[in-house]
Amino acid sequence: MLDTGLTRRHLLAAMAGAGIGAALPASAAPRPVAGAARGTHAGRRPDSIGVALVGLGYYATNLLAPGLQLTRNCHLAGIVTGSPDKIPEWQRKYGIPDRNVYSYDDFDRIAGNPDIQAVYIVTPNDLHKPLALRAAAAGKHVWCEKPMAMDAAGAQEMIDACRAAGVQLAIGYRLQHQPSTLRLRAMAREKPYGRILKVRADAGFHAYDDVDPANKPWRLLPQHGGGAMYDMGVYSLQGARYITGQEPVAVSARSGTTRPHLFEGVDETTHFTLEFADGLVAECSTSFGRNMNLLRADCERGWYQLEPFQTYNGLAGRTSDGQLFDDGGVPHQQALQMDNDALAILEGRPPLVPGEEGLRDMRVVDAVYASAREGGRRIVL
Question: Which of 235, 242, 304, 369 is catalytic?
Fold first, then answer.
């Protein structure tokens, strides 16, 4: 039987440093208060990390900025955007002064701004590396959304640049901060149902039916790092790695589309198989054409799974003998992630999810794309 106290122990471990109440239900989450953008809300530490959001799309607007109103160790200090029309509303809502507002053209001026210690890059994928290199050169810590780069070589450049500049590089794998994910990682070590026999990891959604082929969003454009594998396949890949506790040694993949007028040069659906050194195989899928959200391990004496395993809330786990586990009331996934990353800066220790973790994924993503281009050829990693 599993230790039913495991979820709470991991919840406490994940949240203690972040300063988010471990037992708070979502309804009891801290509320934004006047001056929160300036780091003055009750309970926020006076030396909290000033963060500039780079790219003001959906994720920054609806998840990161609200999350930064709940954090203890960091606060929203600035913005970087290529859309001047967005600036007045952000300044009004979050009290961001003119000196902390940048365009992509004058972004390098951030080097002289003591209000901002970290930048969070939330742009199309092809901009991750160049912006990370500029941020590192400016002496700012870098938080970057997944996938961290367009390929492994770019990821390594980012790591090298941040190391040379003496700044941290953390990748925005919010799920690695979640208690339910931490529990799966513990189960990979403890093997409560015996040896894992097979793994399934599926992450995808159905969308884009109403898109004008002449005016595609960036996630459908190859030059910007579009496609299902970059966007959602990283969840499947990450899930397979942490539910097994192993790194894959070989990969094979096939990609396809049912809407070729939309998916030109990018994948709509990709199926990929990961092989591990002990003979274990993970069957993984990702798609922009099908809803799927399952991470499951079948073992010698039972099974366990998370379904969903990569939504912004409501992660739900269960086991073959009827046990249930979830995230224990984490009020805001992104707030927890950013608080943990800020605390690593404040304490001078590596972040929970450093650039090297993103690089591990990019090496596999490169192989997935190569295998798919070559008709499913098995590629040894």
Answer: 235
Residue 86 is a catalytic residue: no
Element (H, E) at 188: helix 179-190
Positive/negative CA dihedral, 123, 125, 127, 128: positive
The answer to whether 93 is a known catalytic residue is no
The torsion defined by the Cα of 258, 291, 63 and 25, in degrees rounded to 10, comes to 180
Instruction: Identify the sign of the CA torsion 77, 83, 88, 92.
Output: negative
pLDDT digits (tens, 9 = 90+) for 335-370: 999 999 999 999 999 999 999 999 999 999 999 999
pLDDT digits (tens, 9 = 90+) for 234-254: 999 999 999 999 999 999 999
Neighbours of 57 (CB within 10 A): 15
Polymer length of the chain: 381
106's tokens: 């004058």
- HSE on the CB side for 230, CA within 13 Å? 24
- Predicted TM-score (pTM) of this structure: 0.89
pLDDT digits (tens, 9 = 90+) for 50-75: 999 999 999 999 999 999 999 999 99
- Contact call for residues 119 and 142 (beta carbons, < 8 A): yes
Annotated catalytic residue, options 146, 193, 304, 369:
146
Residues 6+ apart with CB under 8 A from 52: 77, 78, 79, 80, 100, 102, 110, 116, 118, 119, 120, 140
Q: Half-sphere exposure (CA, 13 Å, Cβ side) for 261? A: 8
Is residue 90 classed as helix, strand or coil in its secondary structure? helix
Interval 264-280 mean pLDDT: 98
